[in-house]
Amino acid sequence: MTKIESRVPNSKMAASIEDNVEIRQIDLSKGKGLFASKDFKKGDILFEERPIVSSQFLWNEFYKYTACEYCLKSLETAEEQCQRLTENPGVNLPYPECCEAKPTQYVMCPQCQVVYCCDECRMAAWTEYHRTLCMGPSRQDGEHPLARLGEAWRNTHYPPETSSIMLLAKMIAMVKQVDDKSSVISAFSQFVNLPVNKEEEIAHKLLGENFKQPLELLRQMLTESLFEENVQQWYTPEGFRSLFALVGMNGQGIGSSAISVWVKNCEKLSLSDEEKQKLDGFIDQMYEDLDRVSGTFLDCEGSGLYRLQSTCNHSCLPNAEITFPHNNHRLALVATEDIQIGEEICICYLSECDIGRSRHSRQKLLRENYLFHCGCARCLAEADDEDVTSEEEEDEEEEMTE
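and the corresponding structure tokens:
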């Protein structure tokens, strides 16, 4: 079995997924799309999918968000995570049985001491890419080529991160380690990787003039530390830009949180009204403290490349959303509206905050990150709105109240 096969569902699971959805070519400008093969009700899970490859963000790891190196499962207990994020070591969470963290199952790579949530993840990582990327006893050596590559990336892309140089490194390592290299290369070639939309004259925001020098440095460092002749086209200036665009445009953000799991399990408890009220008050205060100290940076975050999810087109009025119900990199696509057979399945590429912004702000974000102008029903309905960003609207409102 090749490594790429180990990352996709087994035949029984694949068959059920294909019964639910179908990838279709739409047109030259929009490319592929994902369509329902049967009717779905709001709340139905359309499918679950593991990524071909995933990686924790380097800044996220730098700030001590501990996650399984392979599946990105949060490794802290809910109480440990809460203590760290509130900067209060005295916090004690009630109902500790609602925390699913299992530290006794955690294992390390015997060479470099990287931590995994279980031995299955450790073996999968070693088989797929870690044999190439393992730094051994040099993991703490800042002069190791991979350490220098990570530092160069952090100096190029500050938080919040939207992709990672280590995702590229893992892609290369997967090609290096697999016997059937064409299978892995073919899997990556299915993703959109155009750094520029020539028709719309749009370039990805991370490939503009401001990033030209840092990206050239990253390309040289990656070439020196992880050259692979079977994908030598990835190391040319244009090839590297395309590879970077592939990760930037197709990478799906991943978030895991021991606290979120604990809260969801607490909601399932059979409690008296008094106990429930007390618990709700504790959770409300906990989130206030988390917001005050750590803001929105509460999850172990990373990015992954998913075969099916990547074919979902964007809409500012989506009929489905991405969730991570297993507290790791395995995603579930859930219907947010009733979906009829033959209907296109669309998700929102924007954050929960950004989707509420003006049409002009949404279009600006989509152009910078995904190289297209949105023509969804909501954008068409708001086509006559004034072309100002939400920030400009807020500034005008503040000036009027002064």
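(Above: one complete record from the training split.) The two ends are 67 Å apart (CA to CA).
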